[in-house]
Amino acid sequence: MSRPQFDPAAYAAQLQEKTQRLKALLAPFNAPEPEIFESPREHYRLRAEFRLWRETGSENRHYAMFEAGDKFTPIMIEDFPIASRRINELMPRLKAAWQGNKVLSFKLFQVEFLTTLAGDALITLCYHRPLDEAWQVEAEKLAAELGVSLVGRSKGKRIVIGRDYVEEELTVADRAFRYRQPEGAFTQPNGEVNQKMLGWAYEVLGERQDDLLELYCGNGNFTLPLATRVRRVLATEISKTSVNAALANLADNAVDNVTLVRLSAEELTEALNEVRPFRRLAGIDLKSYQFGNVFVDPPRAGMDPDTCELTRRFDRILYISCNPETLAANIQQLSDTHQVVRCALFDQFPYTHHMESGVLLERR
């Protein structure tokens, strides 16, 4: 993990630069002024990972990060102000534990933290050695002492102490939604901004009497609040870990109008185009859905051309993007039939060039 250039005094200027960049990318499509959603200046990142660096001639290991492109010059980290307060509280306690325990420290090379706004925490310890019963005994003591769940990873082995997920609670339109966020699966890193994204998408979608198609649904981050705005949702996701988390989240929140299918966006495109059948769609009558909107939150590569073409069928396309360049490319493909009527910038990643954005496209 490379080190962000943390500088709260420069935050406003950096956000303005991102705003101008987004406006320039969307200018060819006559997009309206973007709505801007700022991040907290510090303690906003809910997950972090560190390599451990051993001092020459010593067994002591320290948290380390590296500048981009340089894997050989460690920057020793004692605290990490962009990370959540929970991570900063756990970092010195965990370090003291491994420094004082050879079983825990032997061939430990990486530490990962996953926390939530609700205060839950999970730590993953990664090793270049097999994990044995002696390690598990010490790890169970450590988990109890820190008040966390803990996962040990080594080649071909994974030991879970407590849970292999954290529990989050996010509020959208005065309703609290509970989320399981699994270790090793994607979750939005900036909880405060994620909550703003959910609220924006909820408001933009509006109250509907028809159905919603959702592509790339992940663990159901957007699915839960958006499902309360429509008659039914057909959601797709390819990651088995994320699908299992989404199903648990739907059940935990008593959301019963969502059908979740483990298909990629490309596969669903084939199914809707009747190119070929899929066993995972057995018993699902695709023609019974009355889709008025499609919601997409694709990876950095954006939508592939066929999936982008699929979205053209819908009167309204609600698109959340983690890469404004691929967002602009997808809008270009759709621009002859759809126009941008709402757009937003969500500053998920302060002090970096990355940004999350959202657009609503409506048929011309």
UniProtKB/TrEMBL annotation:
<dbReference type="GO" id="GO:0030488">
    <property type="term" value="P:tRNA methylation"/>
</dbReference>
<feature type="active site" description="Nucleophile">
    <location>
        <position position="322"/>
    </location>
</feature>
<keyword id="KW-0489">Methyltransferase</keyword>
<dbReference type="InterPro" id="IPR011869">
    <property type="entry name" value="TrmA_MeTrfase"/>
</dbReference>
<keyword id="KW-0808">Transferase</keyword>
<dbReference type="GO" id="GO:0005829">
    <property type="term" value="C:cytosol"/>
</dbReference>
<feature type="active site">
    <location>
        <position position="322"/>
    </location>
</feature>
<feature type="binding site">
    <location>
        <position position="297"/>
    </location>
    <ligand>
        <name>S-adenosyl-L-methionine</name>
    </ligand>
</feature>
<dbReference type="GO" id="GO:0030697">
    <property type="term" value="F:tRNA (uracil(54)-C5)-methyltransferase activity, S-adenosyl methionine-dependent"/>
</dbReference>
<dbReference type="GO" id="GO:0019843">
    <property type="term" value="F:rRNA binding"/>
</dbReference>
<keyword id="KW-0949">S-adenosyl-L-methionine</keyword>
<feature type="binding site">
    <location>
        <position position="188"/>
    </location>
    <ligand>
        <name>S-adenosyl-L-methionine</name>
    </ligand>
</feature>
<feature type="active site" description="Proton acceptor">
    <location>
        <position position="356"/>
    </location>
</feature>
<comment type="function">
    <text>Dual-specificity methyltransferase that catalyzes the formation of 5-methyluridine at position 54 (m5U54) in all tRNAs, and that of position 341 (m5U341) in tmRNA (transfer-mRNA).</text>
</comment>
<dbReference type="Pfam" id="PF05958">
    <property type="entry name" value="tRNA_U5-meth_tr"/>
</dbReference>
<feature type="binding site">
    <location>
        <position position="216"/>
    </location>
    <ligand>
        <name>S-adenosyl-L-methionine</name>
    </ligand>
</feature>
<dbReference type="InterPro" id="IPR030390">
    <property type="entry name" value="MeTrfase_TrmA_AS"/>
</dbReference>
<protein>
    <recommendedName>
        <fullName>tRNA/tmRNA (uracil-C(5))-methyltransferase</fullName>
        <ecNumber>2.1.1.35</ecNumber>
    </recommendedName>
</protein>
<feature type="binding site">
    <location>
        <position position="221"/>
    </location>
    <ligand>
        <name>S-adenosyl-L-methionine</name>
    </ligand>
</feature>
<comment type="similarity">
    <text>Belongs to the class I-like SAM-binding methyltransferase superfamily. RNA M5U methyltransferase family. TrmA subfamily.</text>
</comment>
<dbReference type="InterPro" id="IPR030391">
    <property type="entry name" value="MeTrfase_TrmA_CS"/>
</dbReference>
<feature type="binding site">
    <location>
        <position position="237"/>
    </location>
    <ligand>
        <name>S-adenosyl-L-methionine</name>
    </ligand>
</feature>
<dbReference type="InterPro" id="IPR010280">
    <property type="entry name" value="U5_MeTrfase_fam"/>
</dbReference>
<dbReference type="InterPro" id="IPR029063">
    <property type="entry name" value="SAM-dependent_MTases_sf"/>
</dbReference>
<dbReference type="GO" id="GO:0000049">
    <property type="term" value="F:tRNA binding"/>
</dbReference>
<keyword id="KW-0819">tRNA processing</keyword>
